[in-house]
Amino acid sequence: SAAAEEIVNAPPGTRIGLLVESLSDRFWHELVLSVDEAARRRGVRLYVFIGGTLDAPELAARQANRCYQLAGPDCIDGLLVATLGPFAGLERLAQFFERYRPLPMCALAALVDRLPSVCTDNVQSMCRAVSHLIEEHGVRKVGFLRGPRLNREAELRYEGYRLALENHGIALDPA
Fold it and tell me: Which of 67, 78, 129, 162 is the most buried (most CB within 10 A)?
């Protein structure tokens, strides 16, 4: 889409904001490092806003959300946005990100309504990985360490795992 291209092809000196929940998780830490490296190669200035879990049930955790209010057209020219935790559903995220209009925006790791998105097809990726183990390595028992049930991506990966077993006629073993 035009907004994603505008962010990716930003001229040197452009200020791009990145909203993330935290850097304590390896996935987000690596993502921030990768975005920072890409920004540096293009001469783009990256501003990272680490504002905690959006709509967390604990008051102290929600206080960190104020950091997200610092991002805006007065200090950035475009915005990359993440899922910001398990408590805000996709509809809530779409509503939350409206506050940043008219900035060009692109969602990372989530399909957010009315935003161009860059994300992994978790179902197909996991299905292919498990199928590879079965087909190429003859594995018949594949363990799966499931992520938090509130984490949509973890649930999609579990769906891909179950699909691969089903496609190969292997019964799901809860153990």
Answer: 78
